[in-house]
Amino acid sequence: MGKRAAAPTSRGRSQNRRRARGGRGRSRRSPIGRLVLPTLALVTLALGGGAALAHYNAGTGPADAAAAAPTDEPTTAIPTTPAPTKPAPTRSSVAPKPKASPKPEKPKVPASGAGTFAGATSSGDPVGTGGTLRRYRVQVEDGIDLSASEAAAEIERILAHPRGWAAHGRGRFQLVTENADFVIRIATPTTADRLCLAAGLNTRGELNCETTQGVVVNLKRWLLGSPTFTGTPAEYRHLIINHEVGHEIGIRMHMTCPGQGKLAPVMMQQIKGLKGCRSNAYPYDEDGSYIEGPVVP
């Protein structure tokens, strides 16, 4: 009989067992390995904590993530009370009173002038619907601040007015520079008094007149109007020309007020008082009616 094989020892069995398990047995670690692993764990923990902290600070921490997550529940805005603010300083609510516009200064009227006259150099076409043609010249006293040409143009417009004599067949008028039928002179008060007195009329430095040579207009009335006339000096010039030219076309007598509150006739001496009438600068009313009143004896 041959010899039997010796039984393996316990040591041999354990080594074989370890080999059979594919080396899964406990291996020996070096001292360096035992130091490196804990260090890596600490670094990982530190990095992870910092990232979490940064993630929280950026507003996406757990609470913020829950708030940002979509939900099916309706959201309700919570009203907030705004912080009180100081009212802006305001000025007084009472508006300041507007300053009154300064009244235009009245033009200065010289009391006297040179006594000689310069004529307008312009002429015009006849105006009027019928009647005798009357040609007229316009002259302004030398040395006063008034253009003869401008005065002539204004008188031409007055005679052509729709409520004037020419528009209602009482005469035709034409501005000329020569061969005139009558002359309209604008003179200082002293010169006007002298020209009117030559015709036997006392104008006292205030009034206009009509003479055999033509019409004399007091510069004071031309520039300032009349204290009894409700209207501007420009409107009062219509009354001056219409009244004096009324004498030129044959209305020799003056008229007076036809009744309380009615328009004064243009042939009334309105500067001496209205006697209850309303001042008026035109021979005709707006509807074409002739404005007249009782004749002054």
Features:
single chain, six-stranded mixed sheet, 7 helices, 6 strands, disordered N terminus
Low-confidence stretches: 1-33, 35-78
How would the global form be characterised? Answer: globular
Q: Please report the distance between the alpha carbons of the first and last residues.
A: 198 Å
Number of helices: 7
Average residue pLDDT: 79
H/E topology pattern: HHHEEHEEHEEHH
Based on the coordinates given, report the CATH architecture of the domain at 117-252: 3-Layer(aba) Sandwich
Strand content: 5-15%
* CATH topology (fold) name of the domain at 117-252: Collagenase (Catalytic Domain)
Polypeptide structure, described:
The chain is an alpha/beta fold. It has a domain at 117-252: Collagenase (Catalytic Domain) (3-Layer(aba) Sandwich), CATH 3.40.390. The protein has seven helices and six strands; from the N terminus they run H-H-H-E-E-H-E-E-H-E-E-H-H. It has helices at residues 10-20, 31-60, 62-68, 148-159, 189-197, 219-224, 233-248, and strands at residues 117-119, 133-141, 172-175, 182-187, 209-210, 214-218. Strands 1, 2, 3, 4, 5 and 6 form a six-stranded mixed β-sheet that branches. A hairpin with a 3-residue loop joins strand 5 and strand 6 (214-218). The termini are far apart. 24% of the residues are buried. Mean pLDDT is 79; it is low at 1-33 and 35-78.
Précis, in short:
The protein has helices at residues 10-20, 31-60, 62-68, 148-159, 189-197, 219-224, 233-248, and strands at residues 117-119, 133-141, 172-175, 182-187, 209-210, 214-218. With 297 residues, the chain is an alpha/beta fold.
